[in-house]
Amino acid sequence: MEESININQNNKLTKNRITPITLYLNMINFIIYQTKNILNISGLRKSELNYIIQEVTYAINQTKFHINETRNLNKDQRSSILSNIWLRTAENLEKINNQEVKELTDILKEKSKYWVDPEKFTDKMLIDYGMKLNSIQLLIDSLR
After folding, report:
1. How many helices (H) and strands (E) are present in the chain, helices listed first?
2. Nearest-5° angle of CA 42, CA 46, CA 92?
3. What are phi and psi of 75, to 5 degrees?
């Protein structure tokens, strides 16, 4: 099994085995990282920030529910509903005219594609796209 080196919440290096769960968490961490960049440097209005939080939180909650109900042997099950939720989230955030938000929406669109057929995504693709739920949730929690 492959290993990855990550930075945890306390900015400490950690070594993890790459499993489907760690890959998924890495995706979320990247989305949180992108969202933090948007919130910290973009100069968005408070209403836009709240809108981003609201939209992403809804998608996260629906995804968590789906995973809890359907994950089997660490494999995600297809979901056209989740695919549509992540696509809707991306499209709603595209209304905000901002380059950093555009980069986030690109990631969310990839997440939408993931839920059409999770098995098409290799471990490397999951890491490269940075689509992990845990990271998004940490960011949202820190903004409240």
Report:
1. 6, 2
2. 75
3. -115, 130
pLDDT reading at 57 higher than 60: yes
Contact (CB, 8 A) for 33 and 142: no
Element (H, E) at 7: strand 3-7
| Amino acid at site 81 | I
pLDDT band at 82 (very low <50, low <70, confident <90, very high): very high
Rounded Cα distance, 48 and 85, in Å: 19
Quote the CA–CA distance of 18 and 38 in Å, as a whole number.
28
What single letter denotes the amino acid at residue 30? F
Q: Is 36 strand, coil or helix?
A: helix
Residues 6+ away with beta carbon under 8 Å from 114: 76, 83, 121, 126, 129, 131
Q: What average pLDDT does range 94-105 have in this prediction?
A: 83
DSSP class of residue 72?
B
Structure tokens at 30: 């990247």
